[in-house]
Automatic annotation (TrEMBL):
<feature type="region of interest" description="Disordered">
    <location>
        <begin position="87"/>
        <end position="107"/>
    </location>
</feature>
<protein>
    <submittedName>
        <fullName>Uncharacterized protein</fullName>
    </submittedName>
</protein>
Length: 107
């Protein structure tokens, strides 16, 4: 544990470490409004809508964050994020995500 705490954190684009669980690399930018179709958020809040409510595990006026902890739903959100990013970038495909050289690509 102490060794992990002393190791410097990898920066984007640097090599993988044996203790990494994820890695970020710049692929472009989209807004939360573009992702959730929740435009004019302040007006919608005044009407009682909300993006997400912890105790209910859902939003009112948007369904993007419903069932936040479901792996299947999170995968669907990631697929949608990639679709929105591809549409905005005008390209047909995003590059394949980098693979962790230390085994399980899902860790």
């Amino acid at each position: 544990m102490a060794e992990q705490m002393l190791q410097p954190k990898p920066r984007p684009g640097e090599s993988w470490s044996r203790t990494c669980t994820w890695r970020k690399e710049y692929a472009g930018e989209i807004t939360l409004d573009e992702l959730t179709h929740n435009y004019h958020f302040e007006e919608r809040c005044k009407k009682g809508f909300y993006e997400y409510k912890e105790g209910l595990d859902r939003g009112q006026g948007t369904n993007y964050w419903h069932t936040r902890s479901s792996e299947a739903v999170c995968n669907r959100r990631m697929k949608w994020l990639k679709t929105v990013l591809q549409r905005k970038a005008g390209g047909p495909n995003l590059p394949d995500p980098p693979q962790c050289p230390f085994g399980d690509e899902h860790r």
